[in-house]
Amino acid sequence: MTRLRWVRRVELAVLALVVAVIVGQVIASSAPFAPSIGIEQSLGLVPGPTVRAVTRISSNFPAQLQLTGLGLLGSAGVPSIDYYFDARYPVENSSMANWYGLPQHLESLASARHQPLTIDRIDASALAGLLARPPSAGSILLFASGVLPSTVYSATQNRLLPWIRAGGVVVWVGAPIGAYTGEPVDPLRSPAQAQAVPGGEAQFLNATWRAPGATLLPTPGPIATALNVAYPYGLSAGLLNGSAIVRLGGEILGYEAAGATNLARIPIGHGELVDGAAPVVDLPRLAPALLNLIETRAILGPVDLLGTLAVPILPGSQPTVTQDWALPAPLAQSQDATVCAWAVETDYLAPLAALTCAPIY
Amino acid sequence: MALAPDGHSVLRKGSDRTAGTEWTRTGSRRVPGLARLDRWITRTPRRRFWITVVTVGLAIRLLLAPWTGGGDLATYAESATSLGLGGGPYTYLIIYPPGFIDLLALTGRIAGAWIGTPILVGSDPGLLRFFATSSLQWTGSLATPTFALVEKLPLFLLDLGAAGLAYLLVREFADERSARWALVGLFWNPLVLFLSAVPGEFDILPAFLVLAAVYLALNGRGLSSGAALGLGTAIKLFPLFFFPLVLAILWRRGGPIPSRRAIPVATSLAGGAAVLAWVFLPLSTTQSYLGSFLTGPTVGESHGGFGLWSWAQLPHLTPVNWWLFWHTAPITAGMETVAVGLALVVALLYLAHRPRLGIDPVRTFHAATLTGLAALLTMNVVEPQYLVWVVPWLVVTAAVTARFRWPLVAVTAAGLGFLLFGLGGPLYWLEPVVVFTPYLSWGAFTQNLAVWAPTAALVAPICFVVGALALAFVGVRAVRELTRVGGIA
Q1: Which pLDDT band, with edges at 50, 70 and 90, does B489 fall under?
Q2: Which site in A275, B156, B386, B448 is 20 to 30 Å from A340, CA atoms measured?
């Protein structure tokens, strides 16, 4: 009798767990509490010429926001992303998990921001096919393994550089670009080691554009502050020479240390190389940093910082912030320019952001 | 001792040579230093014994729980944060079936309602700001003490549940004293305790369900034993490998009439299928799990561990690190096919034993141990938490068979040693102490780690060798016990 009672108790325990999991599944599938920040932005022109941005903010948790005005020539939309991922190939200054996980983080962040984002994952073969075609406007090619596959790059071939020169936009993080190539292996075998390409980095980066390395950079540059590109990590193998890149017409996008930076946009031919001299080590920081650059189009070309302001928000409060940004002459005189108000959370993970843009005629 | 086909146990004290197993009383005579504990276990009145065991076990766990982290706690903190941000629970760190996420969602919601704060976010805004202003090169998902408690508390109850099942299994087939040893051996087991209380590894949950399935099958319960395994599989895949054994137990136990044997087998399959279908088919968490599982290399790399190839990651050795990479989906499928094959062989051996009806509990325990080992053998990375797949069966068997006591001690010590010295050691487990308390600073911590590292490099391989040898002994011994008497019919 005692035995039967215990059997029934064990059955009840199993039943209780089944019910708990099923109820939990309903909860997990329903909308949970989500920290949210409501942002309403309006842009107007006032004499000056000046842009007046009015931002009304609400939040259900304590948050830090950065409100920034951006001006850019043209009216490009948010670019789509071609993401190179092929697990048969090696990584360098990255990891298999982070290489695989970066697009998931980007998609998750974009979803939290209610922003559309298109990411196409392409393997090494598809990458070769993509580089064989002329670059298309409105898309960027993102690398996060630190190694170029042998299908497009080796000691005897370089299909990436001509593609950039033809107008392609490449975003690179991991080991120095061009420093490594890799061969594929069967997934059941030991992953191949990346092979160094002597002089490979010099194919992409002039020696004067490079700077001594550092693993942690202390100071965010102006764009990094304004857009919350909070990724302070660098490569001990080398950073980028900020002043040399600015002289080229490029832009410092990342952190700085003694004149060097870990992230910069470098014009090459008709295209752009957004080069991260930074390891892929911290996706919760890297993903928002990249997404902020992508959503604000700072990754595609030069942007003017019109003004920026840090704003703390208390839960339940609904402050209204008014900012006046004087338009620089090139923007004011342009017939095809865009002004944007960018609000981004700067807390760790910094998931939330909003962008409101208006054309200037 | 044997259990008759009609379900009434036939207790025969002393040795049970017909079953081909050595059946000895549990005691401390062969384990030096445990005489006092044995006296206490034997002589303490039942009520006081239970209260003491449960209180001490829970108290230690509760002391450790809020201030320690890493492991599954970190993984699920990221998952919960993603849920809290309005995303899905599946991040690149998670490849598990949805069961534990679902359970966490429920406990998180209950705890949130109780303390008045949303709990689904693993890292609270204050913590987020801490990292925003910190120069730490932190790459993990750090959970708050509150979240750590919410994640770990259900595991503590399941630790107790699993130990209770070990007690029941032994008590029903042996005696109270051995059963008490089983209870203490599992609930106070330092490895099991550490895994639930520090990194919050959830392996005890499917392990509990496997114990429940075998217990229910031994008592002729088809539907509920199948449901237990189905739910276990919806949480982590290894309970799937126990289906053949549970069906074999039900078959042997069913009596001489084939239809009476087939009914519990069929209901067990139906129970398992029903739970799996319910959990896997309809809802979004399931879909994202399947998407994560099917889209290729699901989790990237791990950090070595207590496995067949761990030696290769040791300092100064050639970095043969293919095993560090978590399997791609096809590899997982291939390996698990092998595990299913081994599990089927174990079940066939179990069925083939003469007489072909009736249950020999010790052979059943050996078969369960081998089934757990089958799953371990086919993994390319075996971290210490996977030892929980077999430790309960070692405990149960050790409670009634003297030869399994030293392997149990060795596996426990090796797993615990590897957790404490390998895998990043205290940096991994004590991160919350540094972040949330004033008692340890990053500077002091890093300095201590520098001293710790050479010791770790010495201890970790010793732990690996000891643990691997103990598991090998267990496997060989269990095969011998399973095949010795009667042979294949």
Answers
A1: very low
A2: A275
- Nearest CA among B334, B328, B90 for reference residue A87: B328
Residue A31 to residues A303, B80, B87, B199, Cα–Cα distance (Å): 37, 13, 9, 28
pLDDT at B30: 55
- Residues in A closer than 8 angstroms to B219, CB to CB, are 3, 7
| Domain at A77-295: CATH code | 3.40.50
Q: Where are the domains of chain B?
A: 16-131+139-483
pLDDT the model gives residue B336: 63
How wide is the angle at C-alpha B332 spanned by C-alphas B348 and B345, nearest 5°? 5
The percent of residues above 70 in pLDDT, for chain B, comes to 66
Identify the DSSP state of B439: T
* Domain spans of chain A, in order of start: 37-72+304-360, 77-295
Give the span between the Cα atoms of B300 and A191, in whole angstroms. 12
Q: Distance between CA A280 and CA B276 in Å, rounded?
A: 38
Confidence of residue B101 (pLDDT cuts 50, 70, 90): confident
What is the pTM (predicted TM-score) of this model?
Answer: 0.73
DSSP string, B334-362: HHHHHHHHHHHHHHHHHHHSSSSSSB-HH
Residue B174, phi then psi, degrees to nearest 5: -140, -115
Is B381 at the interface with chain A, CB within 8 A?
no
What is the DSSP code string of B309-334?
TGGGGSTTS----GGGBPPPHHHHHH
Task: Indicate the helix (H) or strand (E) that contains A56.
Answer: strand A50-59
Which tokens is A35 given?
A: 């920290």
Task: Kindly state the tokens that stand for B70.
Answer: 């890493």
**Cβ–Cβ < 8 Å for A155, A181:** yes
Please check whether residue B257 touches A, CB under 8 A.
no
CB pairs under 8 A between A and B: 191
Q: What is the rounded CA–CA span in Å between residue A318 and residue A39? A: 10
Q: Which CATH superfamily is domain A37-72+304-360 in?
A: Immunoglobulins (2.60.40.10)
Q: Supply the Cα-derived Rg of chain A in whole angstroms.
A: 24
Residue owning tokens 């978590």: B326
Residue B454, pLDDT above cutoff 80:
no
Cβ within 8 Å, pair A100-B92: yes
Determine the residue among B10, B102, B136, B158 to mutate to test chain A binding: the one whose Cβ has the most chain A Cβ atoms within 10 Å. B102
Rounded CA gap, B78 and B127, in Å? 13
Mean pLDDT for the stretch of residues A113-119: 88
DSSP string, A296-336: TTTTTS--EEEEEEEEEE-TT---EEEEEEEPPHHHHH-SS
With CA atoms as reference, the chain A residue closest to B168 would be: A6
Q: Do A35 and B121 touch (CB under 8 A)?
A: yes
Please give the structure tokens belonging to residue B44. 């303490």
Q: How buried is B333 (Cβ within 10 angstroms: 0-12 exposed, 13-18 middle, 19+ buried)?
A: exposed
Q: Is A149 helix (H, G, I), strand (E, B) or coil?
A: strand
* Single-letter amino acid, residue A320: T
Task: Please report the pLDDT score of residue B31 as a whole number.
Answer: 54
Percent of chain A, pLDDT > 90?
63
Q: Which residues pair with A241 in a beta bridge?
A: A260
Rounded to whole angstroms, the Cα distance separating A183 from A185 reads 7
Confidence of residue B425 (pLDDT cuts 50, 70, 90): low
Query: Predicted confidence band at B371 (pLDDT cuts at 50, 70, 90)?
Result: very high
- Cite the DSSP H helix spans in A74-159: 96-112, 124-132
| Of residues A308 and A49, more confidently modeled | A308
Say what the pLDDT of residue B286 is: 61
Nearest CA among A84, A17, A283, A107 for reference residue B231: A17
Secondary structure (3-state) at B449: helix
d(CA B309, CA A305): 54
